[in-house]
Amino acid sequence: MIKTFHLLFILLSIISFVGRVILSETYPSLLQKKVVNIAPHIINTLLIISGVALIFQGGWLSISYGWIIAKIVALLIYIGLGIITLKQRGTNRWLAFIGAMACLVYIGIVAVTKNAFFFL
């Protein structure tokens, strides 16, 4: 059940992020609406809570589960790139957006394979 909620929050988080990027290009005034500012924080908070719950449920607190650390580091990079994406304009925005999407792909592959170095 927690995994289902976690997957739902992942989907909502991605839709929220991409939606805000699209809004910033097409209708930037909509980004000033309270719901557009608050909803992503609520979604991402629930995403992180469900992720932590899965860590405890799966018993993955041991250092031998390095893939969890890799996902957390990639998440922090994603957050940083997401901030750049939403604050910058021009080429920097799109490079940060591509990097953020690459982080999400990496996190997804690591979640499925349970291997932080799947590419080796």
Explained architecture:
With 120 residues, this protein is an all-alpha fold. It has 2 domains: 1-61; 63-120. 79% of the residues lie in helices and 0% in strands. The protein has 4 helices and no strands. It has helices at 2-26, 34-58, 66-87, 91-113. The termini are far apart. The model has no long low-confidence stretch (mean pLDDT 90).
List the helices and strands and how they pair.
Elements: H1 2-26, H2 34-58, H3 66-87, H4 91-113
Roughly how much helix do the residues carry, as a percent range? over 70%
Gross morphology is: globular
Structural class of the helix and strand makeup?
mainly alpha
- Helix-strand pattern: HHHH
| Beta-strand share of residues | under 5%
Total E-strand runs: 0
Number of helices, where a helix is a run of at least 4 consecutive DSSP H or I residues: 4
Number of domains: 2
User: What is the gyration radius calculated from CA atoms?
Assistant: 15 Å
Spans of at least 5 consecutive residues whose pLDDT stays below 50 are none
Please state the average pLDDT score.
90
**Alpha-carbon distance between the two ends:** 33 Å
Largest sheet composition? none
